[in-house]
Amino acid sequence: MHIPDGFLSLPIIVITYVFAISVLAISFRKVKGNVDDRLVPLMALLTALFFAVQMVNYPIIGGTTAHLLGAPALGILLGPWLGSISMAIILVLQCFLFADGGVTALGANILNMAIIGVMVPYAVYLLVSKKGGRGAVSFGIFFGAFLGDVLGAVAAGLELGLSAPIFQYGVSIAVPAMGIHHSVIGLAEGFVTLVVVYSTIKIRPSILTLNRGLSVLIPSAGGVMNE
Amino acid sequence: MSENSIENLDKSKLDHPNKKWLLTGMVVAAVLVAMGTFVFSESIETLDVKAEELGFEGFSLLPAPFPEYAIPGLEDPLVNFLLGFVSVLLVLIVAFGVYKILSSSHNLKGVSTS
Predict the structure, then answer these.
(1) What average pLDDT does this structure show over B93-99?
(2) Which ranges does the record mark as transmembrane (chain B) (predicted)?
């Protein structure tokens, strides 16, 4: 989903940069001074692991390949603000070190993957898990991750489609192409996000203190409540 | 306050990251990088296919030191694996630095990051 240089028009570049910088600035303000120092290594490790996850390109439909984003898991585990910062770190390093995503498209890539890809899953997870019960929580994680992937791709299709005639396919072709393809990827993302979230909570229950949205997962950690 | 609230967590039962856990994480990262380098390395995304249909390729405005996750002129899978793993370490260090700047103290606050 990384958009390279040369695909986006100037207005789209400017709009996506302004939006991405604004949201990241809000994220930094929200978390500054509120992060438990002892959780810093865990958060850094999760960021590094999801960078590594993105290097694995598995085959999907029509001879194409895909990689997991990791954004939904980061959003649900770290919360929307830290999750977006974590994903932005990955995208910035990918752009400047590996030319994975262009510098002119960095704003769009941050918007699609670090903002939509992180915040949509978190919002869906919060909304659905309010129904209570492990089934609702699990569905919230799975469906949130799926939707985050698909909507991030749809946003990318929209940015490309609105950049016509630079990217000669208009919105009517670019959006369905990206959306349909990523609905397949979204299913894998949903399943992996479920496994990652429950495993992390089980192995490292300290992460439960990171954001209030994780409180519904406290029973999954087991034995961490005051007696 | 609900029964399953963060405030009700027994902080003494929470296990915080240590060196052994970080090491385990790095082993998992090495396995992922190995998979991405030796087995699942080929990347043909929808965006690439659609661009190819239109007859143009994306480019990189700024020259990156390691395009396509490889050292130019040294495109050996083992070198790519080492580069990939060093990159994971770099991400770890950068992320650690950023979170350290954002972190407050050693107080387990139960936090308002959401």
Answers:
(1) 94
(2) 21-40, 78-99
